[in-house]
Please model this.
Amino acid sequence: EDKVVQSPLSLVVHEGDTVTLNCSYEVTNFRSLLWYKQEKKAPTFLFMLTSSGIEKKSGRLSSILDKKELFSILNITATQTGDSAIYLCAVESSGNQFYFGTGTSLTVIP
Amino acid sequence: NAGVTQTPKFRVLKTGQSMTLLCAQDMNHEYMYWYRQDPGMGLRLIHYSVGEGTTAKGEVPDGYNVSRLKKQNFLLGLESAAPSQTSVYFCASSTPDRVNEQFFGPGTRLTVL
Model:
């Protein structure tokens, strides 16, 4: 069974802290791994990773994919209150199938 | 551009009733998707479409039907609603060359009593 598991489920940090969000997966016919940010309603796209390595979105967000160990991490440095959201990890497999994790809820306290 | 819009925003149904959720996008995207999001389950793909007149099943298609008569619209139908279909439904769209960069609508919260 294809699955994507995220940890931790929730996280509370203070502004300026650095956080690491984890995503592991077991998906057949892997094509890409995606990170989305979900604030109040619609998820918005952050990253796509297809090969092992580092992809940066902005100066404070970065993500690593390890296709051998089947995991990805999302790092956020110097967190701000605007980073408070649910972060979703998803894996695309062949045939336009997408499998999402349950998300990590991040709260950044001023 | 409005992006991806969904109607209605909220709906309450009784068991056995039918309804249609409408998704519209003005970005000329070829691909469209319907997901449901439940607590502790994450987003799950119901059906998707790679172009006008085509649809395909996702991970959880049972109890739903879809139609893509026009490129900009993707309809999700529930013929006989069940309490297990209580959820938040999201529509998304993308281009064929960036299928993983999906643009999501604001969601429809459906409650089936």
